[in-house]
Amino acid sequence: MILTSALQAIGNTPVVRLQRIVPAGSAQVLVKLEGGNPTGSYKDRMALAMIEGAERSGRLQPGQRVVEFTGGSTGSSLAFICAVKGYPLSVVSSDAFSPEKLRTMQAFGADLVVVSSDQGRITPDLFVRMRHEVDRIVASDNAFWTDQFNNEDALDGYAILGQEILDQTAGTELHTFCAAVGTGGMMVGVGRTLRPHLNRIVALEPASSPMLTKGFGGAHRVEGTATGTIPPLLAEGAYDEARAVEEAEARELVKSLSRQEGVFAGTSSALNVLGAIQLASELSPDQTVVTVAADTGLKYLAGDLYL
Question: Which PANTHER family match (predicted)?
């Protein structure tokens, strides 16, 4: 089939069953490989849903500038969507995030504002300073802010991800869905679709920034997660349990994922898989845990993740 737009290439990513790194006697672990989207991230779904939702409502006018602050993948995805649709884009990001992501935004034509971090660490105050830059651009350029942390249109894109999981696992009894929380959109959107078909939804976060489990944020290096606040989209009842996962263990798991399972992904994906394996160890072999590999490992080769 010939597509009429690159936007139609978003979605329909595969689900794989892990074969070698899940301990014997555990539940099955399934992983949705979102690196197969056009920019290598599940944020393509969210970006498209936010832009098209704004178009339908009239909040975004033809040729109007779009702006967002982001840890990287949302910026890459918005740059892709805006390039295809013809909107100028300003992205506010930071040197705390992978240079591959920043370069991808520029490759699609976005204007990039880089806010300095605290020695490459992701801290709560970093997002405050990035938000100030967004406010400046909105005021000076009459830009439309997609506001990913509050934009409910994003849930529509993630609901499709959830439906794909259901369609691809037809005949398999799903017990638990787990994923790390950034904006909370994926957890809520997928959860709404999967909730009637599951026993449990578990929110994950890096143990060094345990806002959901202990009520305070902290510095970490898991891009796309744990902003140091409870995201507004993460409504009450969106998950059944929150768990903190050790970032160091997740970073080690990245290598096993690629070298034993062929799943090439980044730190947040490894956090998801590590959480899924831990949950699977508490269940029986006839049960199933499903999670998401959020993006491709190609976004992390310039750093120390794969050294």
Answer: CYSTATHIONINE BETA-SYNTHASE
Predicted confidence band of residue 227 (pLDDT cuts 50, 70, 90): confident
Tokens of 4: 């009429």
Question: Are 272 and 294 within 8 A, CB to CB?
Answer: yes
pLDDT at 266 over 90: yes
Going 284 to 285 to 289 to 293, the CA torsion angle's sign is positive
Q: Is the pLDDT of residue 138 over 90?
A: yes
Per-domain boundaries in the chain: 6-38+156-300, 43-145
Edge-to-edge strand ranges of the sheet holding 111-115: 111-115, 89-94, 66-69, 144-145
Query: What single-letter DSSP state applies at residue 196?
Result: G
Dihedral pair phi/psi, residue 244, rounded to 5°: -95, 135
- May I ask the CATH architecture of the domain 6-38+156-300? 3-Layer(aba) Sandwich (3.40)
The answer to whether the beta carbons of residues 219 and 236 sit under 8 Å apart is: no
In Å, how far are 3, 19, 29, 197 from 44, measured between CA atoms?
17, 28, 24, 25
- DSSP secondary-structure letter at 261? I
